[in-house]
Amino acid sequence: MLDKPLWWTSFDLVRKCRNVVTQRLKIKKLKVGHAGTLDPLATGLMIICTGKATKSINEWVEAKKEYVATIEFGRTTPSFDLETETDATFPTVHITRETLEKSLCGFLGKTKQTPPLFSAKNVQGKRAYTFAREGIDVELPAKPIIISELEIIRFDAPVVEVRIVCSKGFYVRAFARDLGIANHSGACLTGLRRTAIGNFRVERAMSPELFEQIVNI
Fold first, then answer.
1. Omega of the bond prior to 115 within 30 degrees of 0, cis?
2. Each residue of 160-204: pLDDT tens digit?
3. Which fold, 65-197?
4. What CATH homologous superfamily does 2-61+200-215 map to?
5. Which sequence positions are flagged as catalytic?
6. What proportion of the chain, given as a percentage, has pLDDT over 70?
7. Cα 128 to chain centroid, rounded
8. DSSP secondary-structure letter at 55?
9. Residues facing residue 73 across a β-bridge
10. What DSSP string runs through 189-214?
């Protein structure tokens, strides 16, 4: 279990693990995989599997995930997070903790979510983000998801911090978009940390630096 740093891609972490282990074992090749991608602007838990252990990846891909998301109301971006610049602003004075809690109830349970265009979804043989960066609008079909828990950790208008427990295939950026719409405003994701995958929690995860130190002992 590793704690992905900010600005690292998921592949950066996989590559780091592969390099550290292959150098330590003095081998040229090693199969390495991870159980769920995190965007560069997200931090938190990633389960990295090597060698024969990569056969168990699907078990963790299917497991529930827990996130802590920071969402700012009053503006939107094309990517639904801070990867792109603000493209519209909206009023927020009507949003209260009470209205937020009421709107969150509408997201619980089985539902469908439209993935963000700025994503790695395959569309017409290409990644969706390819079309997004070229300014081409394509329609992504809504996908079934399950949200089992939603909890407001902090609300300091216009920013809310929410703990989310959800199924695989859930996009927190898309949730930020939808939460803005549900509150008659706009919103974007300004911070994200994955805190759990199944029974594994980020508090027990290692930094890439600590992992390297332990492997080289």
1. no
2. 999 999 999 999 999 999 999 999 999 999 999 999 999 999 999
3. Pseudouridine synthase (3.30.2350)
4. Pseudouridine synthase (3.30.2350.10)
5. 39
6. 90
7. 16
8. G
9. 187
10. EEEEEEEEETTEEGGGPBPHHHHHHH
Residue with tokens 């980020």: 202
Taking the alpha carbons of 68, 74, 80, 84 in that order, is the dihedral positive or negative? Answer: negative
Q: Which amino acid is at 126?
A: K
Give me the pLDDT at residue 141, please: 83
Q: Please, which residues have CB within 8 angstroms of residue 172's CB and are 6 or more apart in sequence?
A: 42, 67, 69, 164, 189, 192
Q: Do domains 2-61+200-215 and 65-197 have the same CATH topology?
A: yes
**Among candidates 147, 127, 149, which has minimal Cα distance to 138?**
127
Task: Residue 154: name the closest of 71, 73, 76, 213 by CA.
Answer: 71
pLDDT digits (tens, 9 = 90+) for 74-84: 999 999 999 99
Query: In whole angstroms, what is the distance from residue 3 CA to residue 193 CA?
Result: 10
> Could you please report the per-residue DSSP string of 118-183?
SS--EETTEEHHHHHHTT---PPPPEEEEEEEEEEEEEETTEEEEEEEE-TT--HHHHHHHHHHHT
Structure tokens at 131: 């079309």
